[in-house]
Amino acid sequence: MTTATIPTPIIETTREIQFREALREAMTEEMRADERIFLIGEEVAQYNGAYKVSQGMLDEFGPKRIIDSPISENGFAGLGIAAAMAGLRPIIEFMSWSFSLVAADQLLNNAPKMLYMSGGQWGCPIVFRGNNGAGGQLASTHSWCVEGLFSNVPGMHMAIPSCPYDAKGLLKTAIRCNDPVFFLESERMLGDKGPVPEVEYTIPFGEAILRAEGGDATIVSFGRPVNFCLEAMVELAREEIACDVLDMRTIRPLDIDAVIRSIRKTGRLIVVDQSWPFASPASEVITQVCERAFDCLDHQPVRVNTDDVPTPYAKGLEQAYLPNKGKIIEAVKSTLGLL
Amino acid sequence: MSTATASQGRQRNTGASATLPDNTLLGWLREMVLIREFEIRTMQAYSNAQIGGFCHVYNGQEAVVVGTFAATTKQDPIVTAYRDHGHALARGMDPKACMAEMYGKTTGCAKGKGGSMHMFDRPNNLYGGHGIVGAQTPLGAGLAFATKYENEVLGKGDKRITLCFLGDGALNQGALHEAMNLAGILQLPVIYIVENNGYSMGTAIDRGTTMAHKLEAKAAAYGIESLTIEHGMDVCAIYDAFKPFADARRRDQKPGFVDLHTYRYQGHSMSDPQKYRSKDEVGQYMEQDPIETLKKQLIEDRACLTEEDFKAMQKEVRAVVREAVRFAENSPAPDPRKELYSDVFVDPLPNSSPSGPYLHGETNHLMRGSR
């Protein structure tokens, strides 16, 4: 087995801020630069954000640009879509993507299809953002991972940051994008701190980043579970199993080229995805690898998803259901014939 | 909360339309004739399988768009549901682009990607043509939000109003109620116009809608002022009632709600056997035909039109519609190599799809002013 290495951080800064602060900085900086941008959602203004992401933004931008909406996801999602068509740059905050399901018609029929339905006359430059994934004993209706469900629909980009640096850089790209962006955050990461430079930067969509480099297996992930993959990578390194950990950063576009580059080296693919396994981003990665680089594989690909059941409430059940370090280690070892 | 009922629309020469020049009303007549003749050819083409999918025609309801649009400017955004050919034509869409769209041709307003239910016209601020019942109502709120935001935050644009049309069937969709509450809370300058033709597909309004005979109660619940127009087959009655209502909403930048009684002569869609209503009922409404009503008024009250003039108008319009049909028939079908994968993204990125790269769309020359 080869030795695992963690690449030198690309971020040269001593400043560490929370994930939520990184999101807020992205929105605030973009709103200062472009008056067409506004934020609407439940409790975003006077309450300062249900999760304090928009804290202080009402004070800076006033109630015409930071707008409290009643609990009407379908209504304010649709409002934003038409405002985007008419030339504004809306940011729609869902307190949780779980609550976006009642806005499914606007999200899936209107935002991503408007350009096509209108024969190229009207695009829809809008960002939908909010918490995605299990929050911690919130049970089945409040723990949605929408990436599997929504990424099936053509016409939008889907970004899913795993750390504060990416949260800021990807959100700035999302806000400047001329097409709809579904931006998936995580309640469990909002308090995570990480290095974020003060200097201006953006992160392009469709470019995965190699978080760790090793030659034995390729672990591909998106969003919060990338952190579990890194924990697994460290533990596997102690057993002299070295893994590439690829953080995809966006699900659509999907940087499948980066995945193939890595498996050409490792021959082994493990995809870690917090949504259900059936027709999931993990299935998509594996399918595309099989279609394009089947000959590179020395072992059948393995996916680590949440279990294919509704999200349970009880702590132990929820923990058993979610992807974690132990499941990832087991999956990696299975591809190496070590189990 | 004030409501008004325009039930006195039959009284002549008292409303705002009385002060309009003959040419304006002749223009209204021509627009209604254009919609009628266009839809006659639409039905023929549908019967001949030259138009596919679902197709909902506007015969009978012509006065609604002509009378309400007359109170707007082309800068006022319009959004509607899927019975949208009349809206497109009355807003100024080239009949050729409208017909070609239904023929699924690349010269259609949406390059053949939208069809009958998705008429979009950016130069004329028609924001669709929407296929899901009620889905356009939050969009109406958003268009009004945008015009108000442009005024108040960006400091540009005149005071505008958005007209958001819906059928009476959409009264029972949650989207409308969320949208009206938002319009009320945020004080958005949008007017929700219910084209109340009495039926949501085959369901008579009082079988599906509470307070069916007092719809203004629904608007009152959201703090929105309303207007009922009972004589919705009479374009002058519509204009007389709607113009001051719309002007006030524009001036005050506030929402409104209009229950506009109208009637569709044809079935809900082209495949509707219409067993839910009697021929007598249809006949009674045909006696109030909007074209005949205005024509009679122009001949008898204004003496600015003769039967011969009208026949000449019909002849001219039929030629326009024939030309639109000919254009649609002769236009090329969209080339899948160019059109299947274009207009998915404004700025396509690599690796967005496993089935192929997305392409930049080409501008449709009939829809000049679009992106």
Provide a descriptive summary of the structure in words.
The complex is a heterodimer of chains A (339) and B (371). Chain A has 339 residues and is α/β, with parallel strands linked by helices. Chain A contains twelve helices and 14 strands. In chain A, the strands form three sheets. Chain A has a seven-stranded mixed beta sheet, with helices on both faces. A five-stranded mixed beta sheet of chain A has the order 9-11-10-13-14, with helices on both faces. By secondary structure, chain B is α/β, with parallel strands linked by helices. Chain B has a single domain, classed as Thiamin diphosphate (ThDP)-binding fold, Pyr/PP domains (Rossmann fold), CATH 3.40.50. Chain B is built from 13 helices and nine strands. In chain B, helix 1 packs antiparallel against helix 3, helix 1 packs antiparallel against helix 11 and helix 1 packs across helix 12. The longest helix of chain B has 26 residues. Chain B is globular, with a radius of gyration of 20 Å. Chain B starts with a strand and ends in a 32-residue tail after the last helix. Chains A and B meet through helix 3, helix 4, helix 5 and helix 10 of A and strand 3, helix 5 and helix 6 of B.
Q: What can be said about this structure in brief?
A:
The complex is a heterodimer of chains A (339) and B (371). Chain A has helices spanning 19-33, 57-61, 73-85, 104-110, 114-117, 147-150, 164-176, 225-238, 256-266, 281-293, 315-321, 325-335; strands spanning 16-18, 37-41, 66-68, 89-96, 127-131, 157-159, 181-185, 193-195, 209-212, 217-221, 243-247, 250-252, 269-272, 302-304.
